[in-house]
Structure formats: structure tokens, C-alpha cells
Design brief:
Elements lengths: L1 E2 L1 H4 L12 E3 L2 E3 L7 E5 L6 E6 L3 H20 L2 H17 L1 H12 L3 H21 L6 E3 L6 E9 L2 E5 L7 H13 L2 E5 L6 H13 L6 E3 L5 H10 L3 E7 L2 H12 L4 E5 L4 E5 L5 H13 L9 E7 L3 H12 L20 H16 L3 E4 L13 E4 L16 E7 L2 H9 L6 E5 L3 H10 L4 E4 L18 E2 L12 E9 L1
Parallel strand pairs: 8-9, 8-11, 9-10, 11-12, 13-14, 13-18, 14-17, 16-17, 18-19
Antiparallel strand pairs: 1-5, 2-3, 4-5, 6-7, 7-21, 12-20, 15-16
Helix pairs in contact: 2-8, 3-5, 3-6, 3-7, 4-5, 5-6, 8-9, 10-11
Length: 491
């Protein structure tokens, strides 16, 4: 309902934000229930905004607006849709500084990292603007002399998009871009911790000239009710969700009665394996990028670091030295490389996992205790971790690096695969034969080999097992938003 000076005074273009839902091309600045919710800066506790707390009826209204807009949007040429996405891409780049500021203030990550997220998200918009014109069908030889068979692809329809707080811009961009490119319309439910980034994106789509109803945002704290409506409403053809496996299972159950299409990017438990022939300096750099980006709050973070016995001590010494150079603080301050965790509850979860490791006999070589300042948690190095500890099975989602020792390649693969998750994995080594064996043996949707940075719009992002299904990015990223139709003509 209101934006505070703690937010607007830091923006070059304050008009970029409106504190309200965006439904059918109009801004809903008042909730029909008369409720609002606060958006706070996790680094300072300052109130950034009070946003209308929308729920079921607003979700229905947004779905109706998206349904009304979808047929005309799909009827436009691919080039028309692509041209509007290119305008959106240009606006994202032009306003990248402000978008990064909004992101840092509501989520906490360092500003330079936030700007990197904005440009990463813009990359998906640009990529799918180009892919809009490459949705190809097929002609198939007929089964009789009279038969003429062709296959076309059509948009699924209205898509419900549910995004997490840890990448509030990029997760939205990589879902809405392919959906809009192929002719779908979108109803987005952002995380209540970080709705402002989604509302800023809505503003940019409005400025870009997208038709009313093509993109809608429903901010609210009643995630269960909004999610239920998106899953149960017969006019929503597909759900695209990024979040926890637990919530993903609930959404799948709710979608079952409608046999609704789904894409799920769920939890992770990424192993990071260092073999004895690895370039240790490169491996340490890769571990730092993978583990400490976003203060460890990513689904593809290195969650379990496995180091072969012969190089274990040398790797740990190098990693500890690099970790000592991290600067914890407010993401808006220059030089900060590690921002706060999102909430006090997140800090408590990290504390529990570290305490469990300590009780099980691990050595806390660095950090290991809250700073005492709001939701900041120091970079923490744990040595002597083993598979009995909770952090071997659960996502840490914090700046904690547990190091496990292993002896053989077979042991490393067995340990790495000993999880119900299968999103991302990493390993470092130089033996070409082993690289091939390990890459094929790891049960993950994404494998980084001698790199800790794997995310890009040109490659398919997604997992296997309980990390979900479907892919985002690349030429494969449009397929989940399309129906295949077979046409048989008798002549």
C-alpha cells in the first residue's frame, strides 16, 4: 500500500515500483480484505513497503484476466511477441542498477551480486525472445496414400508461476520469458519475503507495452490459498514452481485432479568432489563460488564437499584462507561479499545443523556461531563431517562448508548419490577417463566439471529424483509451455 523512504530514496527511478498487485493491467493497491503485509530489509530491519495482502479472490481475478488475454496474445505473430520481449530486455538492462537495489534491500545479497542476478535474468528474456520464432513442427509421411500428417505446437494457455525468495528476479524471468514467448499468459505468485522484485518486473512489462492480462502478479502471505487456487482452477493449464520439495509435493497433489501440466525445480543437496589429481587452486575457487554465492542460499550450492584423502589437508588449508577473506555485512555497503540470511528462522536452521555436526564429533574450524547481529551468520568451515550428520542429508541454505574425506572414486560416487535429491553436482579432476566415468555415474540433472558456476540461459537447468522435473533455459526450455497437436488430413 505504501513505499517507505528507506526504499524510494535509494532508487534513481522511484516510479519503477508500485506497492500493489498487478491484475489485468491495473494496479491493486488495496486488498479487498483490508490487509497489508510488511516487506523488511533483512540486513537492517527497516520497513521497505507495506503491500496489499491479496489472496483467493484476487488470484481468481488474475486467472480470469490471463485467460481473457491469452487467445489474442497467442494469435500474435512470434515476431510481435519477440519484439516486446526485446523491449523488456532493454528496460531490464537500463534499470539494472535500480532492480539490483530493490533486490538487495528486500533479500540481502550484496549489490554487485544482485546486479549479476538482474543481468542473468535479462539473459533469459533475450534468449527466449529469439526462441519465440523457432517453435517448429513436423511433417510426417502418411500411413495411407490419402493421409497427410503434420505436427504443430501450441501454447498450453494460462500458466501459474510460483517463485522463491532467494532469486526473486531471475527465477521469475526464466519462467515468464518462455511462457510469453510461445503465447502463454502468466499469473505470478512471488514469495512474500521478496515481492518487490516481481512488482518491478510488472512495471517494466507495463512500460514495454505488453497487453493487459498477459502478465499478472498476486502478492500475499497466504501462499497455501493462492497456490491452491492456481492448482485447482480449471483455467490454469500449467504450474511452474521453484521451491522446496515438501511444497512441491503438496502442489503436485493439488494438481492431480485436474491432470495439470507441471514444471518443478525443487530442493538440492549438491556434492562437490575434489579428486587427488585436481587443480586445487581452481577447486577452491569453484567451491567459493558455488558455496558462498547468496550466502549459501541457493538450491545448487555445494552442500557436501568431498575431498580425496591425499589432498584433503592442502585443500582445507587453501579453502580456509579464502574463506577468511569474505566480508559479512549489509549488501548495500561497498566491499561486502556475504549478506544476511533471509530470516531469523533461517539462522536457527543453520545453527541446528552446525550444532548437530559438533555433537557428532566434527571440528568447527572457522565460524560456527551467529554474529549476534540480526540475521548475519559467519562463513563456517566444518572438518571431519560424515554421512551420519544432518548436514549430509539436508540442505544447509547458509554459508557453511562441511568437508568430508574419502579414499576411492567408487566411494565418492556412492556418497554423492546417497540422497533423494538430484539437482546439481560438481567435481574436479584431470584424468579424462575418470571425468567421463564420474560425469555419467552422478545421478544429477546438472554436473559442473572443473567449474563451480553452471547457470546460464543457453543450457537446460533442472533436476532428477526429488529435485523435480522439467527444464528452464536453452532450446528445451520452451517445450514445457507447449502442447503437441497431431493433424491428419485425408485428401
Amino acid at each position: 500500500m505504501t513505499l517507505t523512504a528507506a526504499l524510494t530514496d535509494k532508487l534513481k527511478e522511484p516510479r519503477l515500483l508500485v506497492a500493489g498487485g498487478f491484475i489485468g493491467g491495473k494496479w491493486n493497491t488495496v486488498s479487498s480484505r483490508g490487509k497489508v503485509f510488511r516487506v523488511d530489509n533483512p540486513a537492517t530491519g527497516e520497513v521497505l513497503a507495506q503491500v496489499p495482502d491479496l489472496s483467493t479472490q484476487a488470484t481468481r481475478d488474475a486467472i480470469a484476466a490471463a485467460r481473457k488475454a491469452q487467445r489474442d496474445w497467442a494469435a500474435r505473430s512470434a515476431k510481435e511477441r519477440a519484439d516486446l520481449l526485446k523491449v523488456l530486455h532493454r528496460l531490464m538492462v537500463e534499470h539494472a542498477d535500480d532492480l539490483a537495489t530493490i533486490l538487495t534491500l528486500e533479500m540481502g545479497k550484496p549489490w554487485a551480486e544482485a546486479k549479476g542476478e538482474i543481468l542473468y535474468g535479462a539473459g533469459f528474456v533475450e534468449w527466449f525472445a529469439e526462441e519465440a520464432r523457432r517453435v517448429y513442427g513436423d511433417t510426417i509421411p502418411g500411413h495411407t496414400p490419402q493421409a497427410r500428417i503434420s505436427v504443430i505446437k501450441q501454447p498450453v494457455g494460462v500458466v501459474g508461476v510460483i517463485t522463491p525468495w532467494n532469486f526473486p528476479n531471475a527465477m521469475l524471468a526464466r519462467k515468464l520469458a518462455p511462457a510469453l514467448a510461445v503465447g502463454c499468459t502468466v499469473v505470478a505468485k512471488p514469495a512474500s519475503e521478496t515481492p518487490l522484485s516481481a512488482l518491478a518486473m510488472a512495471r517494466l512489462l507495463e512500460w514495454a507495452g505488453f497487453p493487459a492480462g498477459v502478465f499478472n502478479v498476486v502478492p500475499g502471505t497466504d501462499s497455501a490459498a493462492i497456490g491452491q487456487e492456481l492448482c485447482a482452477n480449471p483455467h490454469v493449464a500449467k504450474i511452474s514452481f521453484t521451491g522446496s520439495t515438501q511444497v512441491g509435493k503438496i502442489l503436485m497433489r493439488q494438481c492431480a485432479d485436474g491432470i495439470k501440466r507441471m514444471s518443478m525445480e525443487l530442493g538440492g543437496n549438491a556434492p562437490f568432489i575434489v579428486f587427488d589429481d585436481a587443480d586445487l587452486d581452481a577447486a577452491v575457487e569453484g567451491a567459493m563460488v558455488s558455496k558462498f554465492r547468496n550466502a549459501g542460499q541457493t538450491c545448487v550450492c555445494a552442500n557436501r564437499i568431498y575431498v580425496q584423502a591425499g589432498v584433503h589437508d592442502a585443500f582445507v588449508a587453501k579453502l580456509r584462507e579464502k574463506m577468511a577473506g569474505l566480508k559479512v555485512g549489509n549488501g548495500m555497503e561497498e566491499g561486502v561479499t556475504l549478506g544476511p540470511l533471509i530470516t531469523e528462522k533461517a539462522v536457527e536452521k543453520v545453527e541446528e545443523l552446525v550444532a548437530d555436526a559438533r555433537q557428532q564429533g566434527a571440528d568447527i574450524a572457522m565460524g560456527g556461531a551467529p554474529t549476534g547481529e540480526r540475521t548475519f551468520y559467519p562463513p563456517t568451515l566444518i572438518i571431519g563431517a560424515d554421512k551420519t550428520m544432518r548436514l549430509a542429508r539436508e540442505e544447509v541454505f547458509g554459508p557453511v562448508a562441511p568437508v568430508f574425506r574419502f579414499d576411492t572414486e567408487e566411494e565418492a560416487i556412492e556418497l554423492a548419490n546417497a540422497t533423494e535429491f538430484g539437482l546439481a553436482a560438481y567435481f574436479y579432476g584431470r584424468d579424462v577417463s575418470r571425468i567421463t566415468r564420474v560425469a555419467e555415474a552422478l545421478e544429477y540433472g546438472i554436473v559442473g566439471i572443473n567449474t563451480g558456476l553452471i547457470s546460464t540461459e543457453v543450457a537446460p537447468f533442472g533436476g532428477v529424483k526429488q529435485s523435480g522435473f522439467g527444464r528452464e533455459g536453452s532450446k528445451y526450455g520452451v517445450e514445457d509451455f507447449l502442447n503437441i497437436k497431431y493433424l491428419c488430413l485425408s485428401v
